[in-house]
Amino acid sequence: MTLTVSGLHAGYGGGTVLHGVDLQVEEGTALAVLGRNGAGKTTLVHTIAGLLRARQGTVVLDDTNLTGRPAHKVARAGVGLVPQGRRVFASLTVAEHLQLSRRSGEWTVPKVLELLPRLGERLRNKGNQLSGGEAQMLAIARALLTQPRLLLLDEPCEGLAVELAARVRAVVAELSRGGLTVLLVEQQPEHALAVADHVALLSDGRVVATHTADELRAAPHLTDQVLSVTTHA
Length: 233
Ligand SMILES: Nc1ncnc2c1ncn2[C@@H]1O[C@H](COP(=O)(O)OP(=O)(O)OP(=O)(O)O)[C@@H](O)[C@H]1O
Fold this sequence. Notes:
Elements: E1 3-12, E2 15-25, E3 30-34, H1 41-49, E4 56-61, E5 64-65, H2 71-76, E6 79-82, H3 94-101, H4 109-115, H5 117-120, H6 132-145, E7 150-154, H7 162-177, E8 181-186, H8 189-195, E9 198-203, E10 206-212, H9 213-218, H10 224-227
Parallel strand pairs: 3-8, 3-9, 6-7, 7-8
Antiparallel strand pairs: 1-2, 1-4, 4-5, 9-10
The structure holds adenosine-5'-triphosphate.
Adenosine-5'-triphosphate binds next to α1.
């Protein structure tokens, strides 16, 4: 599925965070949106997922206009979300999480456990007994069981040890190679470049440039301006 976001404006209360975001993710490719703290990455993901209402602009998946649809309808249209912070329930076991997320389709529990074997060893463990990496794998498993055609991931490597972050990146890259359309938001170029075909640079709620991953590898300074740290009041 191809995702096309055009002129997207969104915000909270009186404040606008997204000021006309334009981006496209071609079917079966991965786009990383790279931006510093507060650039609007989570706001973008939530607006695409229908958790936040767009004030202007459109979100279109293939020929289906998702703009203004509530989150459960966006999910049913084929959009899976791996939220920031994993959002795992402390008192439910891994097996219970998987059962709750399951919808019929290509992704079955055995298939998900084949991709994420560590979860298979933790089926009886509760959410609060999982490591950060295991919780992230569970968040990915839950999203896959909703049978997405487009997967949104909000900083999936955040807070993970180096090895676990590498494992999460490998899983996302494998999903993308398997034909899933992927949009992930990231603060760290190394995570973005390990997974993405294209990288969009988000600054103050606008996409200011889009590069291929190869272009950014060859010219890493291109991210300096959008990632440079500014002092927040
Ligand atoms: N629920 C909310 N109500 C009001 N303002 C919010 C809310 N959520 C986010 N914001 C503000 O919107 C702006 C963008 O936040 P957003 O979470 O989208 O950024 P981000 O790029 O994802 O940052 P981070 O890397 O810290 O997650 C910030 O100024 C933030 O304070």
